[in-house]
Amino acid sequence: MKKGLFVCICILMGQWIFGQNLVQNPKSKAELNQWIEQHFSQKGIPPFSFVYNGTKSTDFIGKWQHEVKKIKSPDSNIEKAVHTYTDKQTGLVLECTLTRFNSFSAVEWDLKIKNAGKTDTPILESVHALDAILSDIGTTLHWSNGALASFDDFAPQEKQFSKQGDTLHLQPHGGRSSSTVLPFFNAVGQQGGVMMALGWTGEWATDFISVSGGLLFQTGMAETHLVLHPGEEIRTPKVLLLFYDGDQWCGQNLFRRFILAYHHPLVNGKPLAPPITWGVFGTTSADVHLYNIDKIIEHNLPVDYYWIDAGWYGKTGNWYVDAGDWGINRNLYPDGFKPISDKLEKSGRHLMVWFEPERVHKGTAWDTAHSQWLLNAGNFESSLLNIGNPETRKFVTDFISSKITEFGLTTGCYRQDFNIDPYEIWKSHDTPDRQGFTEAKYIEGLYSYWDALRSKYPGMIIDNCAGGGRRIDLETTGRATPFWRTDGPRDAVAHQCHSYGLMQWLPLSATSVDCEGDDYEFRSSLSSSLCINWLHSGDGAWKKFSDEFPFTWAQKALDQYIAIRDYYLDDYYPLSPYSTSRDVWMAWQLNSPEKGEGMVQAFRREQSICTAACVKLHGLQPNATYSLVDLDTNATQQMTGRYLMEKGLSVVITKQPGAAIITYKKLN
């Protein structure tokens, strides 16, 4: 009870930030310059490491031939260079492509490792794409849970490294990059910090170790112990480092901005505008789809993509076991999907269809016809279609391309799911002296597959599901968006908590909105994109709209969402502690310092006795006056930025549970 009463008085969170400019400054730029000089000059020690023929690379890499080739970039804020390290004795070549982003004091790289010799290499093992000291002892590391279909998905985590010998090991476990833990990290020191992110859609592993010189970061594939045959090549995870000054939220928001600037999916060459989708399970018949689409059009609901999920294919009617039988169920869709996509396109909307081509269930058509392309293990009911094999990858690219054309998805959305943990399957197909090879080629194949589809269909977008948010990383974010970020509880408090944690890292995501007519549930599910599951929530065939459906409420709610949607791409600040309890408030702020505007979202949960809370805002100009509007009452008030940041904004919610949205705009 005392905790709840405290929240009624004031919610306190973090440090005040008085209009701090979230761009690089001389200190972070100098730190990046020093870091690149330390690791990539001719006398530098590379920030990666490996063990080769039993010896760690730091003992010999300085003796290898090191060549640098600069690459011209059309973006004046980007500098590119390829650093090549060659062992003339065995023919092993490491090619490190280094990309520097000057406007963010950020740098990315990955390694290509090739056997250019005429015989097998010695054993190459313990390959770390990053192996360097990046912070001081005393650093606080922030990260978040991954997606495990739980209430605690994306929950914030932290650990302080206060003394030598402190360690932390993080790994997704299972082969999907954001299962268990997100591959994004923020190491906060005394006067700034460094963001680190990984691009590897498989099994990575990261260790943080306090050593005498500071905090050591080591990251790479979870296991590498292999020889490379002549001509073979693998790549490592991509690594991003972003140096910043200020507190944790300066780093988090610079990272969000960086993702939007350089890892944002494109549609016809332009950044993806987060869409509103309408999700329907695939076992719904075509006549119901067409009827409901007519109603959506008639009532002018602003739906961008009509989403047909799993279950539209196969012979058994079980979406999971039919993966691998990709013929349309003609009992449900006698004329296929084209009548549906044509109706949508005519109204300015598009079709979105679910696929899961990588998983092939036993006994399906692909299992029988393409067994030579499958990876399997004895205890798995499903196999993997080995997209690391170029022949297999061409087959699946051609097949899915034919479906994209047939279904009318060239300007729609290709939704790709992945409901299997592949790590043990990959490992089972590697001999003891080839551990890591199958995974490396498979992940390269996934990127090539998606890139081929994106190149062929520039007007189409890709939804990255993977069992609900389990393949979120630096490589996937620029190719696809998690429009179903978790298979976790369909619960308002859970959705609030998931947004709280994930928005710290990524601007783009979506979750389900399940209860028509419920403002609290609707607002609890809002993020940069939106997946509507009204009429029916969960698996199973949908019904037609009833005469009682609240279309007036739906139009008002969606119009209100559209009016505030762009704020979800702005800077994010939590205004309350993270909590799953139902007797507290949760609140956050989204702020655009460039436009001088933003919004506050607050939630009074169902067991909270508090009718009001005070939240201190961030990122405002102290001497500016802001006009604030409550979207429920239309009540307006004016306050200075200094007052809002020092004294705070009082938010009143009389409903239990209830949700408030307050927008603000700078007047002078």
Features of the shown structure:
single chain; 668 residues; alpha+beta; Immunoglobulin-like; Beta-galactosidase, Chain A, domain 5; 3 domains; ten-stranded antiparallel β-sheet; 15 helices; globular; disordered N terminus
Task: Describe the main β-sheet briefly.
Answer: 10 strands, antiparallel
Got a strand count?
39
Distance between the termini: 42 Å
What's the architecture of the largest domain in CATH terms?
Answer: Alpha-Beta Barrel
Mean pLDDT: 94
Q: How much of the sequence is in beta strands?
A: 25-35%
Give the count of structural domains.
3
Rg measurement, Å: 26 Å
CATH topology of the largest domain: TIM Barrel
- Oligomerization: single chain
Fourth CATH level, the homologous superfamily of the largest domain: Aldolase class I
Q: Structural class given helices, strands, pairing?
A: alpha+beta
CATH class categorisation of the largest domain: Alpha Beta
Tell me, briefly, the overall form.
Answer: globular
> Helix coverage percent of residues?
10-25%
Low-confidence stretches: 1-7, 12-21
Tally of separate helices: 15
